Amino acid sequence: MKHSILIIVVLMLFNCKKAEHATPISTAVQDSLEIDLATDTISINTEKIVPVKSYKEIKAELTAKGYQTYDYVDEETKDTILMQQYFIAFLKNGTIRTQNEEEAQELQDQHLAHLTKMYKLGYADISGPFGDDSNMRGITIYNVPTLKMADSLANADPMVKAGRLEIEVHPWWAAKGFSLR
Question: What is the distance between the terminal CA atoms of the chain, rounded to a whole angstrom?
């Protein structure tokens, strides 16, 4: 009996879809496996298994918090894709760029601290500068329910307050659970 369960678990792991959008459950099970090579055994630590929320649970939570969502069925995979509205803030050169090098560096340090705080609090999902020296300096994608909240958080940036940067915020849609590659 013990060997049957072990064989089933191992087969499940090796037969898991290796596609781009593999199910989170396979990852949860894999992360909970403890393999002892000395005794040639595999055990499952059930305390490490994190329950995966269903699409309906995620959508209900987002809706209850005021987020805008919609969904569609992917024709190829037949998976339901949940789209969420985020807000993308474009950071542009501001009108006050006369700070000396020391002041500009202090503002940059405060700017990075602000973005780190936004990320740690869960308000921002990704930020970064553009790779050229144009008027457009970078972006931050805010994961908040309203444009007003995104605008407020972006305007709280010390670089924006000092006038060194200006922001322009737009609604932006992306699929939940997808990542950059």
Answer: 42
